[in-house]
Task: structure prediction
Amino acid sequence: MNLSFFDQFSSPSLLGIPLVLIAMTFPALLLPSPGNRWITSRLSTLQLWLINLITKQLLTPLDKKGHKWALILTSLMIFLLLINLLGLLPYTFTPTTQLSMNLALAFPLWLATLLTGLRNQPTASLGHLLPEGTPTPLIPALILIETTSLLIRPLALGVRLTANLTAGHLLIQLISTATVALSSTMPAVSLLTLLVLFLLTLLEVAVAMIQAYVFVLLLSLYLQENI
Result:
């Protein structure tokens, strides 16, 4: 039983072929297809309003130089948001519960922000490794600590997203299993756990949205440090 709780996090496959790519491309079907008109329905109006809101929120901490990243950051935010929300549906697979995928998203983007800073302002970027006014005996230790904290950023991004989504899915499965098990023996307690399950599901919807926003927001803050 303990092992079966983690079966939902195993990558699905059909005839030995992993279906992760299909799960990753499925959110694109929910986006409006381009047409002759900008606004074709109320749904497209709502989607455009949401994309505009997300873009404004992500570009708030950035100056004009960082606005070149608007398309990448907004696309990543919508991608993570849709995948996280679709993963809450029954009998679905959430690719963002895989640490390998999250690291594959975090590391290249973090490296791009770092290389951008080293190319445009190398002195300022390297200056972050040594705070101003540091005593001379502490310089080697501080450089080592700041370098470690810099290199661990993509790992922290991936682990944070994976841990939060994995914990939420496990809690939902545990409480739903308890609800079904108690339905025949203790109906009153089963109704209570069902209420807890409903509230937890609402919480997980909020967590799915917040974690997608935090992931992209931290990338935008890393970008701001280097531009």
